[in-house]
Design goal:
Elements: E1 6-10, H1 19-30, E2 35-43, H2 55-79, E3 83-91, H3 94-105, E4 109-113, H4 119-124, H5 128-135, E5 139-143, H6 165-180
Parallel strand pairs: 1-2, 1-4, 2-3, 4-5
Helix pairs in contact: 3-5
């Protein structure tokens, strides 16, 4: 892998199967990644406080519960000898929060499981995959849910008219990362 120091892994808190983490492990072992940054954002609307519980306490409990789940989830990854950092965040707009978290970590590659949605849903709802592709400053690798087989092809999208130097540099970074995967 071409000088990827940190891989940003976005987990889906609504499922137990985390294909993005499996793929990140595979990419990191084949390349020169030194750290996996495993990130999970909880949608604030999904947090329910029990009767008599303060809302702030419910938020803290949910964040701690997800952090413990992630620690259990990354234990085999750490056993492989990979360095793993974890981050749990609560946000009203988890799609924007994920993009901001990628920017904070200064990663060269973000890996996320694709969201399976119907065409109608994709048309009318904000899509986290599209938001990540559009707003991230790094390369994004979207993993299909059946990610157990080795990667044979990688589709890399670049800007074809590069009037500005920044676009040429971005294209080279994307192509270099895709070739490394």
């Amino acid at each position: 892998m071409a000088d990827v120091e940190k891989i940003f892994v976005i987990l889906d808190p609504t499922t137990m199967e985390q294909h993005s983490l499996i793929m990140a492990e595979s990419v990191a072992r084949r390349g020169k990644a030194t750290t996996l940054h495993v990130y999970c954002c909880i949608d604030e609307k999904s947090i329910r406080a029990e009767a008599g519980m303060e809302p702030d306490q419910a938020r803290t409990d949910a964040q701690e519960r997800v952090a413990e789940w992630i620690d259990r989830l990354v234990t085999p990854t750490r056993a492989l000898g990979l360095t793993v950092d974890t981050e749990v965040e609560i946000s009203q707009d988890w799609r924007k929060a994920a993009v901001a978290a990628v920017a904070r970590q200064n990663c060269r590659l973000a890996i996320k499981s694709m969201s399976q949605q119907t065409r109608l849903t994709r048309l009318f709802r904000d899509n986290s995959d599209w938001r990540l592709l559009r707003d991230s400053a790094c390369a994004v690798y979207l993993v299909k849910t059946e990610s157990t087989r080795p990667v044979r092809k990688v589709l890399a999208a670049i800007k074809h008219r590069t009037e500005k130097q920044v676009y040429s540099e971005a294209n080279e970074l994307i192509l270099e990362t895709a070739r490394g995967i």
